[in-house]
Fold this protein.
Amino acid sequence: MRRHALSRFLSPRLVSIALGLLALALTLETTLTPGSAQEPKVQKLVFASAGFEDSNRFWMVSRPDHLQYDPFLETLLDVDPKTGEYTARLAEKWQASPDYREWTFTLRKGVPFHYGYGQFTAKDVVHSHSLMMRQEATATLVQTWRGVEEVKVVNDYQVVFRMKRPSTTLPYAVSRAGDLRMVSKAQWDKEGIEGFDKRPAGTGSYRYVGRQPGLSITFERVDNHWKGEKPAFKELEFRLAREESTRLALLLSGEAHIADLPRELQKDALKKGMKIYSSSFPVDWMTVYLGGMYFLPGDPAFKPDVAWTKKPVRQALNVAINRKELLNTVFAGKGTMTYVTGWSAQSEGYNPEWQARFDQMYGFNPAKAKALLKEAGYGPGQLKFKILAFTEPGESEGPQVAEALGIYYKDIGVDTEIEVLDWAKVREMFRKKTIQCCIWPNIISWRPSEEWIRISYWSKSANHHYENEFIDKTYNTLSQSIDPKERNRLARAIADHLFEEFADIPLFWFANEVVANPKVVSEWVYPGLGAGRSTHFHLIKAAK
């Protein structure tokens, strides 16, 4: 008889976490139950994070890890926390030329850098962009920045980004959702990279104090921020804790006030009086990616013996998964189906027909999965591979999904091994095309369709998730087009192709969530669209 779904996905590690926290919960009941004595006013807000690539060099860090920069390094444009629209920030105005090859930004006057490095001007924009051009730059949007022909200074408060090809998505890239942080040229000229590493000067409503690598990063409030932003808390600390049990314990003990927790553990925090705060938009999707999808003729990284280079295997790995069960257990039912990775109903090229056809093509059917594997030449026990798992800020469920995949695939006669690695190692493997061994679940946040195609499916970009001649040719046409109807047709053609080819294993869309102590935090409105997901720390309101 089949066990209850939840028990299938609770690893021994999570069971031990739950048991170990029971005693802690009993000791904390009197202090965390609503109605108990009011806690002292908190001066330092502590956010327990799954961790990030620990570096001040934003040009070498992927977007999810930009959580560490959001409090103090600002961008040219902002993202409205309620509407998701791009709004003025360090740039007051922006305008594209008719051919979208030039974007003019009018900069805000009177914006001081922290620690006395003068005011923000056009030279700082040129300098910040130049960091993205450094040889070691590996930021998510580095190809976008290398597609800039010139950042021309018109005057101290106006710059023009001249692009090598039309760019309809540049507002996204220069906004809080992107990764181009504005830093001080004066500091760099005086102190070099050593000074920047030690104490980078930004313009945000918090300023950088310091970091203990692998442990924490701290900030202090700027009381005269140029925009008038005044965070409720005098200090902010990101406390790094890779283990979800540690983050929950920090939250329940009062050592942290906000925590990034997997949804499976959120209920333990809710029982003790904690509260969930969600992003304004369902901005994250989870997909399982397949290593080795390099179908361009002559690509030496293509290995025909990789099982999922065969389409029937890719479909088998999809229909082996009970998505509804997985959603209701690991994600506590909080999400909606993803039909094509990266495309929401608001995305350029979205096709409503995917939903109608999804169950027939991707729906849960173990018998069909076994038949597809047999068609591809794999009997029971003949297919073995690794599932890679990791955690990042806002991506806590990866290891649980990996465990669930292992169970589903065992049910169809496939043997798997779960290997837990650092995100940086996984990223290095797929960027260097050395990940043919493995599949890996990953949570990624929304971005414009053209940008998603460029970064994941275009062969000249960094990530190499699924590449072939059709995608390259269609993307190149899309990237040159500025006609909305033509762009929508081309984006849909690529998305339809990914759908038909079972390019990966799409799972769910959901909002970003954090858990907080309501005796310390009364409100936090943030869009989820920002780089790092949990952003707009100045909008966190303190409980009265």
Summary: The CA atoms of residues 366 and 411 lie 8 Å apart.
